[in-house]
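Hey team,

Filing this mostly as a record. A colleague (T.K.) asked me to run one chain through the structure pipeline before their review meeting, and I want the input and output archived in the tracker in case anyone asks later how it was produced. No errors, nothing strange. Just documentation.

Input sequence:
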Amino acid sequence: MEILYEDNHLIAVNKEAGEIVQGDSTGDEPLVERVKKYIKKKYNKPGDVFLGIVHRIDRPVSGVVIFARTSKALSRMNKLIQDREIKKIYWALVKELPEKDEDELKHYVLKNSEKNKSYAFPKQKSGSKLGILKYKLISSSTNYHLLEIDLKTGRHHQIRCQLAKIGSPIRGDLKYGFSRSNKDGSISLHARKVEFIHPVKKEPVTIVASPPSSDPLWKEFENVM
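Output structure:
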């Protein structure tokens, strides 16, 4: 487990693709429990360890996940998210280039819980929520392109469905129209960087996660890392 940031209030981990942040019906050990065990062992803590989930990323996605070590830090981080004061940068590998090298996407995102899938529409529909992101092309290899995404809102599968909507589904993302899966079941979407003002120390914090070393395609973009 790669620890990216740690103090008395927060801890951030570079989640591997395939890990779940919180327990689900699969019964697989979630990341939150692994981090609790790490804290319990490192600090020799008796009893249960408090660990609040600040945000989640999808199971097939890798990258930065932040947890709160105190209830005060959790409530303050939740407020930062609510006020959109946490900057989240993602990297995505796509085969089909968007029409523009840089753009802001605004769609109304509608979640279908039965299919665990979201749909992006140009106009509001009943139950939909506005999804906003900015993307820019930062590098290209022989067959793929690396997009950097500044996520402005946190809707269900937002990046995945919005990029698919403009004809640029993420590599490996069968659910949103890519032609084939990645060998390990991941999709090539990575939570690269998170920036915010520390909820207790009031200092700027920047947390950066390296893309998965297990996928050789990411290595083709080492020039921008």
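Quick notes for T.K.: The chain has a mean pLDDT of 95. The first strand starts at residue 2 and ends at 6.
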